[in-house]
UniProtKB/TrEMBL annotation:
<dbReference type="InterPro" id="IPR058240">
    <property type="entry name" value="rSAM_sf"/>
</dbReference>
<dbReference type="InterPro" id="IPR013785">
    <property type="entry name" value="Aldolase_TIM"/>
</dbReference>
<protein>
    <submittedName>
        <fullName>Radical SAM protein</fullName>
    </submittedName>
</protein>
<keyword id="KW-0479">Metal-binding</keyword>
<keyword id="KW-0949">S-adenosyl-L-methionine</keyword>
<dbReference type="Pfam" id="PF04055">
    <property type="entry name" value="Radical_SAM"/>
</dbReference>
<dbReference type="InterPro" id="IPR007197">
    <property type="entry name" value="rSAM"/>
</dbReference>
<keyword id="KW-0004">4Fe-4S</keyword>
<keyword id="KW-0411">Iron-sulfur</keyword>
<feature type="domain" description="Radical SAM core">
    <location>
        <begin position="181"/>
        <end position="351"/>
    </location>
</feature>
<keyword id="KW-0408">Iron</keyword>
<dbReference type="InterPro" id="IPR034457">
    <property type="entry name" value="Organic_radical-activating"/>
</dbReference>
Length: 424
């Protein structure tokens, strides 16, 4: 398993004399054969700025830095794959933060790239190679022209073509899960938020948050265009917006209007679920699916990352329980990070949280963050570090009725003879 690294021009090499290492939080560790899979289609290799690659000198067995002006390399995985280890590196400039991506350990082995990851869902639907840019551009132009006064379509056109957001692209391609953002405000101050960062954070938000309040008519136009097939999903709560439930009034109105005209497809919300009264109203209006973002079931960890404003993790739990009791299929968008999520206390707390809330699905999502910055704000480990692979196996054993996946599914998925990791 050769070390993979890059020069300052972005050229990638495998080191003939150094074995690759990974990181589990702050600890540099060996990579086991059983943790590796071939680099998935749709992955991207990236150079990690402000870093030095570190590996094992095969001749001496010593851990060493690669000499010269070289950077560590990581892989960005498509949806459907869960990262098991970070790349092995040390910061060359500790004052600098890495761009907000989910870096995965990558090695060169058997004449090919391999990554420390696990297949946890069908990657077909969220593989960028299945989004034809020519077709997308045609459909963007068509729908923007059809609804020239709809500011949401104009906003989403930049998300699809500029940021290459696959959910926004689905809105124009009218397939699978499509986006309908609604909120410019948020009741949390997430560390590393991808759409809005304070100047002093040291991070650069990779995309711009929407800056207007949409009209109900603009929302319903997108929903009715998208909800045309039995398996279609339209989702409130995107990376380009704040917390959608802060706009509960217009969401409730839009859901009711749409359901008066069609029963087709499913309505989903991606939410922090902190505003329990608002969530109740949205559920009662006719919500089908709800995915709740969380990084932990422990208050101190949750609060350090989300910085919730006027809500607590108990509110999140109440919202999930209410939605589950009303027949909504609930899941969590579980932001996972090697060396943190796989701590003994984190695993125990999450198992109990899932049991109390009646979740159907745990969506394992690789946290996009600068590791050093994240580790600097959260509580230190209190128990044993078990590793991501063992964490997943514990979830499978302790929560046999809960699906482990990577993205939202329609109700049919839970009643059919499914294999979450089947590749179409």
């Amino acid at each position: 398993m050769n070390l993979v690294y890059s020069d300052l021009q972005g050229n990638v090499f495998d080191h003939p004399d150094f074995l690759a290492l990974g990181r589990n939080a702050e600890m540099i560790t060996e990579i086991l054969e059983e943790e590796l899979i071939p680099l998935p289609e749709g992955s991207t290799l990236v150079s990690l700025p402000f870093t030095r690659p570190v590996g094992i000198d095969a001749a001496t067995g010593d851990m060493k830095l690669v000499e010269g002006d070289y950077h560590a390399v990581g892989a960005l995985l498509p949806q459907g794959f869960t990262r098991l280890l970070l790349p092995g590196y040390v910061k060359s400039d500790k004052s600098k933060a890495l761009p907000l991506f989910g870096y995965t350990a990558v090695v060169w082995k058997d004449d090919g790239f391999y990554v420390a990851a696990r297949l946890t869902d069908n990657p077909y639907y969220w593989n960028p190679v299945h989004c034809d840019p020519t077709e997308l551009e045609v459909e963007v132009k068509r729908l923007v022209a059809k609804y020239p006064d709809n500011r949401l379509y104009a906003h989403l056109s930049n998300c699809a073509l500029g940021y290459e957001c696959l959910t926004a692209s689905n809105t124009f391609l009218q397939r699978w899960e499509g986006a309908v953002p609604v909120s410019y405000s948020c009741n949390a101050g997430c560390f590393g938020c991808i759409s809005e960062q304070p100047d002093e954070s040291g991070f650069v938000a990779p995309q711009t948050r929407m800056n207007f309040k949409p009209k109900v008519e603009e929302i319903t136009q997108i929903m009715l265009e998208h909800l045309r097939t039995p398996e279609s999903i339209i989702s409130f709560g995107q990376g380009c917006e704040g917390e959608p439930s802060t706009q509960a009034v217009i969401i409730i109105d839009a859901i009711k209007q749409v359901r008066e005209q069609t029963k087709m497809g499913y309505i989903n919300i991606n939410t922090n679920a902190g505003l329990t009264d608002h969530i109740r109203g949205i559920v009662d209006a006719g919500l089908d699916l709800m995915r709740v973002s969380t990084i932990s079931a422990l208050d101190d960890h949750y609060n350090a990352y989300y910085k919730p404003r006027a809500y607590t993790l108990k509110n999140v739990e109440k919202s999930l329980r209410y939605a589950t009791d009303k027949g909504v299929i609930t899941s969590i968008n579980y932001l996972v990070f090697p060396g943190v999520t796989d701590r003994e206390e984190e695993i125990e707390a999450m198992i109990e949280f899932v049991r109390r809330t009646g979740l159907k699905l745990i969506q394992l999502r690789n946290l996009n963050i600068d590791p050093e910055s994240y580790l600097g704000i959260i509580p230190k480990a209190r128990g044993e570090l078990l590793g991501m692979k063992q964490m997943i196996e514990i979830f499978e054993q302790e929560l046999p009725d809960v699906v482990l996946g990577s993205y939202s599914h329609t109700p049919k998925f839970y009643t059919s003879d499914r294999t979450a990791t089947t590749v179409l």
